[in-house]
Amino acid sequence: MTPDPIQQPEQARSRHRSSLQNVDYNLGICGWLLVLLSLILTVITLPVSIWMCTKIVKEYERAIIFRLGRILRGGAKGPGLFFILPCTDSFINVDMRTITFDIPPQEVLTKDSVTVSVDGVVYYRVQNAILAVANITNADAATRLLAQTTLRNVLGTKSLAEILSDREEIAHSMQSSLDDATDDWGIKVERVEIKDVKLPTQLQRAMAAEAEASREARAKVIAAEGEMKASRALKEASLVIAESPSALQLRYLQTLNTIAAEKNSTIIFPLPLDILQGFLKG
C-alpha cells in the first residue's frame, strides 16, 4: 500500500519533534571525558562552584540545557531549581507566557480592486520550548513577519464589503493559517483580531455620497407613500361630509376653534358657496 503524500509531511514533522524531545547522550568518548573532568572540577571547587551550577527559572519560564551542543534528554527544565555543569553546559530561557504584538498597517488590494489599509493584533505563546529554540532562530520575529504576510494574503481574496462585514471570519482564517505554519516552531497562535480598516479619503467621500443619496431616495419614497395614504383618507372624509351637509359646518367650527386657540389676530372664515347660490338665483 502506497503512503498518502499528504500525510508524509505531517509524519516527518512528528518524527522530528519526537527526535528533539528524546535526544540521546551520544557524546562520544571525548565528550564523556570532558563531562567527567567538569564534574571532578565542580567537586574539587565546592562550595564555590555550587553557585555556578545552581540555576533558577521562574514559574512562566523553561530552560533548555545544551551539553556540548546537544539538548539534554528530558526536555525543558523548570520551573524552579536545576543544576548544570559550568564548563560543558549552557542553557537558554524561554518565556511561556502569552505574547501580544500589533500587526503594522498593511496596504492591501482587495478582490474588487480597492486599496485599503488594515492592521490587527495577534496573541500567541510558546507551546514547545525545545522546538522554539532548535527549529528557528527567532520565533518572535518570524511570527511577526508571517502575520503581516498572512494578513495581506487573506485580505487579497476578500472584497471590500466582506472585509468591512466579516471581520470575525477573516480573523479565524488568519488564526488557522498562522497556527498551521508556526506548529513546527512550537508556537501556538491563540487569537487574531482585525483592529481597523482605513479607506482612502476619496472612497470615503464616494461612499458617504452614495449613502446620502440612498437615504434621500428612501425619504422621498416614504413621503410619497404618506401623501398617497393622506389623499385616500381625504377622499374618504369628503365622501362622508358629502353625505351630511351639516358635517361641513361642524368642520368649519372645529377649524375656527383651532385657530382661536393659537391666539391669532386675523381669522379667515370660509364662506360656503352653497349659501351664495340662493342669492345668485334671485
TrEMBL record:
The record places domain Band at: 52-211
- Its recorded name reads Stomatin
Give yes or no: UniProt keyword Chloroplast. no
Tell me its family.
Belongs to the band 7/mec-2 family.
Superkingdom in the source lineage: Eukaryota
Localization, per the record, is: Membrane
User: Membrane-spanning residues where?
Assistant: 25-52
Among InterPro entries, the record links this protein to:
Band-7_stomatin-like (IPR043202), Band_7 (IPR001107), Band_7/SPFH_dom_sf (IPR036013), Band_7/stomatin-like_CS (IPR018080), Stomatin_HflK_fam (IPR001972)
Statement: the UniProt record of this protein carries the keyword Iron: no
Could you tell me the gene encoding this protein? Answer: stom
Keywords, A to Z? Membrane, Transmembrane, Transmembrane helix
Query: What SMART domains does the record point to?
Result: PHB
| Gene Ontology terms: cellular component | plasma membrane
